Amino acid sequence: MIPDSSGGPSSGSDHDDRPTLETPLVGIIMGSKSDLKIMSAAADLLRQFGIPYEITLVSPHRTPHRMVEYAESARKRGLRVLIAGGGGAAHLPGMVAAFTTIPIIGVPINSTLSVQGLDSILSMIQMPAGVPVATVGIDSATNAAVLAIQMLALNNARLADALEKYRITLKDRVMRTIEELRK
Ligand code: RP5
């Protein structure tokens, strides 16, 4: 029975195989607790948009069977998109993509100071044809969440409107800075 932790509007609900209105739509997974400081930004944004999500650890190297179970059960449990973060030899997004056909957004994490995330991004970006991982920039968990929301907004007018408003807040922030610099 995966996962361990849910967030957003569905927080605290039990999980079974029947999707409900409270069923998490986005799964945020990562290889290690040390990734959480980066990956929590994705959860923050999904919460802001009122999207039910779950967040948990799935290590491709330390808990490989859990990874397979998570990926194989994801669609059946109602998840529509997965955000998968990993550092170093970041095999999680690619291996999860091998076991499910729901979209995977990969977040390369800068966990090895020596190469500053280059190892992670190279581990996930060049997938074989037919098994893609939509890889965002190093440590770009917020962009991963935005992409997930954009996918969900394709057939959800409320989310499409919320995305328009989000873009306006980004623009307003820049305009405020421009005004401050003028002073
Ligand atoms: C990867 O190894 C994880 O995604 C993490 O970024 C990195 C280091 O893991 P820890 O040694 O901090 O648990 O699998």
> What does the oligomeric state look like here?
single chain
What count of structural domains?
1
CATH architecture: 3-Layer(aba) Sandwich
* Helix content percent band: 40-55%
Mean pLDDT across residues: 92
CATH domain class: Alpha Beta
Q: Which fold does the CATH topology refer to? A: Rossmann fold
What molecules are bound to this protein? 5-O-phosphono-beta-D-ribofuranose
Structural class: alpha/beta
Give, in order, the helices and strands: EEHEHEHEHEHH
For the largest beta-sheet, the strand count, sense and barrel status come to: 6 strands, mixed
- Separation of the first and last Cα atoms: 57 Å
Biggest sheet: strand arrangement: 1-3-2-4-5-6
Low-confidence stretches: 10-19
The total strand number stands at 6
What is the gyration radius calculated from CA atoms?
17 Å
How many separate helices? 6
Sheet-strand content, in percent, reads 5-15%
Which properties best describe this structure?
183 residues; EC 5.4.99.18; Rossmann fold; purine biosynthesis; 15% strand; globular; binds 5-O-phosphono-beta-D-ribofuranose; lyase; PurE_dom; alpha/beta; 6 helices; isomerase
What does this structure look like?
The protein has 183 residues and is an alpha/beta fold. The protein has one domain (6-156): Rossmann fold (3-Layer(aba) Sandwich), CATH 3.40.50.1970. The chain is built from six helices and six strands. A six-stranded mixed beta sheet has the order 1-3-2-4-5-6, sandwiched between helices. Strand 4, helix 3 (92-99) and strand 5 (104-109) form a beta-alpha-beta unit. The longest helix is centred in the C-terminal third of the chain and has 26 residues, at 157-182. Mean pLDDT is 92; it is low at 10-19. 5-O-phosphono-beta-D-ribofuranose is lined by residues 30-32, 34-35, 59, 61, 86-88, 109, 111.
